[in-house]
Design goal:
Chain lengths: 107, 115
């Protein structure tokens, strides 16, 4: 299975701060990567797919980048509603596998 | 708008079978792919398997001998059965739409395996 290593495990950001979350794959996943946000008690929401494509309705402060084995999610200007858990998912080789998650809090 | 809702027992005894239903509204399950994903205590996640628009299935090899995903197109529902459960199968179970990129998810249902 492809291993997805996500960092950091937790992050505290100030209002308006720009933050990045990384996912590293154990092999090339050819940009078959999605990012999700999950708020407490809610279902995960798709933010980014194909590494850098913004899902409809997702604020433009969210962006994704990367290729090969290295990918990142950037939030340009932390907002209170951005608190939650974030995780990546590779869809290149079955079984699809997830990163370990990042807990993002507002400082 | 597509909506998914999981249902099923919240408590299952070890060695028994776990059975869950995902009811889908706003989208026909005879289109696209439909999967089951679980989130363990401690937040590790696992894609368990999926069923396609035609009814074909793919399962995570780690579960292959224990898992079955089926569907009832007349009710627009699909199902998860996991056999011979242990306490390590305690998790929140989600159904989702999509083959690899899960575009929409259900709310999730916590299943505890305990005697």
């Amino acid at each position: 299975d492809i291993q997805m290593t996500q960092s950091p495990a937790s992050l505290s950001a100030s209002l308006g701060e720009t933050i990045s979350i990384e996912c590293r794959a154990s092999e090339d996943i050819y940009s078959n990567l999605a990012w999700y946000q999950q708020k407490s008690g809610k279902s995960p929401q798709l933010l980014i797919y194909a590494a850098n494509r913004l899902q409809d309705g997702v604020p433009s402060r969210f962006s994704g980048s990367g290729s090969g084995t290295q990918y990142s999610l950037k939030i340009s200007g932390m907002q209170p509603e951005d608190e939650g858990d974030y995780f990546c998912l590779q869809g290149s080789k079955f079984p699809w596998t997830f990163g370990g998650g990042t807990k993002l809090e507002l400082k | 708008e597509v909506q998914l809702q999981e249902s099923g027992p919240g408590l299952v005894k070890p060695s028994q079978s776990l059975s869950l239903t995902c009811s889908v509204t706003g989208y026909s399950i005879t289109s696209n792919y439909w999967g089951w994903i679980r989130k363990f205590p401690g937040n590790k996640m696992e894609w368990m398997g999926y069923i396609s628009y035609s009814g074909s299935t793919s399962y995570n090899p780690s579960l292959k001998s224990r898992i079955s995903i089926t569907r009832d197109t007349s009710k627009n529902q699909f199902f998860l059965q996991l056999n011979s459960v242990t306490t390590e199968d305690t998790a929140t179970y989600y159904c989702a739409r999509g083959r690899s990129i899960a575009a929409e998810w259900g709310q999730g249902t916590l299943v505890t395996v305990s005697s």
